[in-house]
Amino acid sequence: MREIRFDTIKDAVRELCLKANFEMRSDILKALRTSLRKETNDRAKRILKSIIENARIAKKKRLAICQDTGMVIVFLEIGQDVSFVGGSLKKAVDDGVREAYHKGCLRKSVVEDALLRNNTATNTPAVIYTDIVEGGRVNLEVSPKGFGSESKSAVKMLRPTASMEEIKGFILDIVKFAGPDACPPFILGVGIGGTFDTVTHLAKRALFRSIEQRNPKRHMANLERELFKEINTLGLGPMGLGGRTTVLGVNILDAPTHIAGLPVAVNISCHATRSASKII
Amino acid sequence: MKEIKLKTPLTKDAVTDLKAGDEIYLSGIIFTARDAAHKKIADLIKKGRHVPLNLKDACVYYTGPTPAISRRPIGSCGPTTSSRMDPFTPALLRLGLRGMIGKGDRSDEVRSAIKKHHAVYFLATGGIGALLSTYVKSARPVLFKDLGPEAVYKLEVKDFPLIVGIDSKGRNVYDKTRWKKG
Fold first, then answer.
1. Residues of B carrying an active site annotation
2. Is A259 helix (H, G, I), strand (E, B) or coil?
3. What is the model's pLDDT at position B71?
4. Shortest CB distance from B131 goes to which of A57, A180, A238?
5. Tens digit of pLDDT per residue, chain B (182 long)?
6. Structural domain boundaries enclosing B35
7. Cβ of B131 and A148 within 8 Å?
8. Among A93, A114, B93, B117, which one is most buried in terms of CB atoms within 10 A?
9. A198 and A187 in one domain?
């Protein structure tokens, strides 16, 4: 058994929260620069430039990229030969989030009760997902997720015989519905397959993957490319004010499903999609 | 494309020539207010109570900033989604509110109310709160201080970059773009 201490997890979560909030992901920054070169709409170009400039200022001054510093989503891939010592894993994660949001002057956006709306003032609890894998290491991934885009996400249980056009149509409709509100250009996390609950999890997980990587299955990778192309002909553009830059990346994760169903989930994420990871 | 410098207070005369799509640099005093503050103000209005904020010719900014780091007046402070404020907006416009800053489109009801009250809705670019904070010269909480990031802050801004979203004639910048409300 390899022992991992409470403080190791807590410190790592804290550092990743800070990094994700201050430093734009390199894959997204690169996609923004590529889009700027290809963009023909003057206003779209100005907006893309301001997004790139914002990333520079945020990193230099240790200011949050976006004031919606999100609800923190944490994925832990835990090697089965690992044992956690010195306190509860959940508490280690939440303590790391609490310290980051306090020390980093990040906004506390979590309410304790969805109906009573009382702010916990610590940005905790985090949303924690765990997966048990082989080996003696822990892969820790942290993403502060903003709710302007989260609120525009959707899931649909399609018929198993749905055509490719119907599947794409649903995804395109969600992008159109998100419109200017959700801060385009977007990163799309798409889940296909699984069950009602797992498909949304896949969509969320897809946002963590670099937008430079394609789904390992050829037909899924092709669907990613087709969606990328079709969404960028919608003309929505940066902040919905026109242009050819509506998505920066489309990431699909898929899973086996039932003969009677075809679940599809779309997690909309803004140009300030933030995540950071570390192997412990 | 016209680029216009604008100063608060936003009088009727000051906004009358603005057109949807114009790029504006706003200087002066603006007040932050988002969901919780709007709900509280709307409740006061509904109960016929005094609203402790002079909205006449004022401009509100839909934002909930991050806490300020040392030697800076404010943290990251970009716009939040305006449509969540739609149910409360007509009541604020009736009290003389002239300008609003946010992101995204508004309801038809808000658009009509903007036209009726000769007001203006500005767009700020979302997700660039660090950059936008550099146009804020001072910030201090003035109302509902217990709401933390959702409190009403009085901000002094200099050349804050905006685009006219809906002008006082009710023209909407999204009418000219390819995005249409579903």
1. 38
2. coil
3. 85
4. A57
5. 567 999 999 999 999 999 999 999 999 999 999 999 999 999 999 999 999 999 999 999 999 999 998 889 999 999 999 999 999 999 999 999 999 999 999 999 999 999 999 999 999 999 999 999 999 999 999 999 988 888 999 999 999 999 999 999 999 999 877 666 65
6. 3-173
7. no
8. A93
9. yes
* Nearest chain A residue to B65, by CA: A67
State whether A239 and B178 contact (CB < 8 Å). no
Q: What is the pLDDT of residue B8?
A: 95
What is the percentage of chain A residues whose pLDDT exceeds 90?
Answer: 98
Report H helices in B47-140.
89-94, 108-116, 129-133
CA distance A221 to A217: 6
Q: Is A65 on the interface with B (CB under 8 A)?
A: yes
Q: Which residues of B touch A177 (CB under 8 A)?
A: 182
A153 and A87 fall within a common domain: no
- H/E stretch holding A138: strand A138-145
CB-based contact, B120 to chain A, within 8 Å: no
Helix, strand or coil for residue A117? coil
Give the pLDDT score at B149.
Answer: 83
Q: Which residue of B has its CA nearest to A47?
A: B125
CB contact under 8 A, A66 and B127: yes
Residue ranges making up the domain that contains A96: 2-22+65-145
pLDDT band of residue A272 (cuts 50, 70, 90) is: very high
Domain at B85, CATH number: 3.20.130.10
* Calculated CA dihedral for residues B177, A166, A164, A159, nearest 10 degrees: 150
- What's the pLDDT score for residue B179? 65
Query: Which of A62, A109, A119 shows the shortest C-beta gap to B69?
Result: A62
Q: Residues A164-183: pLDDT tens digits?
A: 999 999 999 999 999 999 99
Q: Classify residue B152: in a domain, yes or no.
A: yes
Backbone angles phi, psi at A93, to 5 degrees: -65, -50
The answer to whether the CB atoms of B178 and A236 lie below 8 A apart is yes
**A139 shares a domain with A8:** yes
Of B64, B80, B182, the CB nearest to A177: B182
B133 touches chain A (CB under 8 A): yes
- Measure Cα distances from B157 to A59, A84, A125, B137, B160 in Å: 23, 50, 35, 6, 6
Q: Which residue from B11, B12, B8 is spatially nearest to B156, judged by alpha carbons?
A: B8
A129-150 tens-digit pLDDT: 999 999 999 999 999 999 999 9
